[in-house]
Amino acid sequence: MGLLTQILTVPLAPVRGVGWVVKRVAEVAEQEAYDTTPIERELAELERELLEGRVSEREFDRREDELLDRLEAIQRARVGDAPAPRGEERTGEAEEGAGHDGQ
């Protein structure tokens, strides 16, 4: 029966192939959405900019809050409390001391 099923469903092979590709693309997109490495790099670069005097303390605080908000959104999404982050959407100001040590 397995061989007969394979022969009869050969015309559906392209559909199965497209389904497989879509599934793999979705998996990679999800992995990238939950990857904190780029945000951590941005935080490190931002700190370097502050130490080198390329950004003001005020600008540093603003950008740091945005980056920490993105990290927090990823962490919430990993445990299922919120949907995966999609870009730079912000709904409000960062909560003061929301589990971040500010470094």
Write the layout of secondary structure elements.
Blueprint: H1 2-8, H2 13-33, H3 37-51, H4 57-78
Protein described:
By secondary structure, the protein is mainly alpha-helical. 63% of the residues lie in helices and 0% in strands. The protein has helices spanning 2-8, 13-33, 37-51, 57-78. Helix 3 runs antiparallel to helix 4.
Gyration radius, rounded: 22 Å
Content-based structural category: mainly alpha
Helical percent range? 55-70%
Overall geometric form: rod-shaped
Quick synopsis:
This protein is mainly alpha-helical. The protein has helices at 2-8, 13-33, 37-51, 57-78.
What descriptive keywords fit this protein?
single chain; 103 residues; mainly alpha; 4 helices; rod-shaped; disordered C terminus
